[in-house]
Write a structure and sequence with these properties.
mainly alpha, 12 helices
């Protein structure tokens, strides 16, 4: 099994800092501050891509301070990592992996997790994939809020879409966003939305890698040998 979600390994991948020379003696504050800088620079990068256009279309930059607020939850940084990746559409979905030859071509149209005839897009992962029904219950109140919010705006429930994805990930639609997605002044009781979403993403992506990694391994061994297989594992974990 590929274990790739530890904060140290994650952080090493995204940073060249010398602080990691001694893995057992990292100052947590330094570690956190550097993580924030790396995440911020990634979220702020304007590369003119479709993902960048999506990011700005739904004003995701207005909730960028989640990175700073996450300071209170520093131990959950691996989940923060997945939230950042979904917000910037930097996720290796099955069609993407298939397109570069890491998964068989059938996964252009079939979700490897629920095995249905469904493209494994970000909206599919977040809202539709049956494989994640249990995990999705933990963000059910946020999803209900999204349905209400979109219905208020367009008069009817919107289909599972980029709009719903953007709202779950801290974006804005029709001038509205989820309440308490960030920690707000009036915030008192439950965890902020970004933390609940980050935990949800972290959990499903850990489970998903167990489903997808073997598919990639057999494909890699069949066609390209061990080198390809290793590189595909890296792509999955990034
Ligand atoms: Zn699915």
């Amino acid at each position: 099994m590929v274990e790739v979600f530890g904060i140290i390994r994650w952080w090493k991948r995204f940073s060249n800092s010398k602080v990691v020379t001694n893995e057992n003696n990292i100052d947590p504050k330094t570690l956190y501050e550097e993580c924030v800088e790396i995440l911020r620079s990634k979220e702020e990068s304007h590369d003119g891509s479709k993902a960048g256009a999506w990011y700005h279309k739904f004003s995701l930059e207005q909730t960028r301070s989640w990175i700073v607020q996450a300071n209170e939850y520093v131990m959950e940084s691996p989940d923060m990592h997945w939230l950042m990746r979904f917000r910037t559409k930097s996720v290796w979905t099955a069609p993407r992996l298939s397109m570069v030859g890491m998964l068989p071509s059938e996964y252009q149209e079939t979700c490897p997790c629920c095995k249905r005839d469904a493209v494994e897009s970000i909206p599919h992962i977040l809202f539709e994939c049956k494989r994640w029904d249990d995990q999705r219950r933990k963000v059910a109140t946020l999803i209900s809020q999204i349905k209400r919010l979109t219905k208020d705006c367009v008069g009817e429930e919107v289909q599972v879409s980029d709009i719903m994805s953007a709202l779950l990930l801290g974006g804005e639609y029709c001038g509205a966003r989820l309440t308490n997605w960030l920690i707000e002044r009036s915030h008192t009781e439950s965890d902020p939305g970004f933390l609940r979403v980050a935990r949800f993403l972290g959990e499903i992506m850990r489970l998903r890698s167990r489903i997808i990694s073997p598919l990639i391994t057999s494909m890699g061994q069949r066609h390209n040998g061990r080198t390809r297989s290793r590189s595909s594992h890296r792509a999955l974990s990034k």
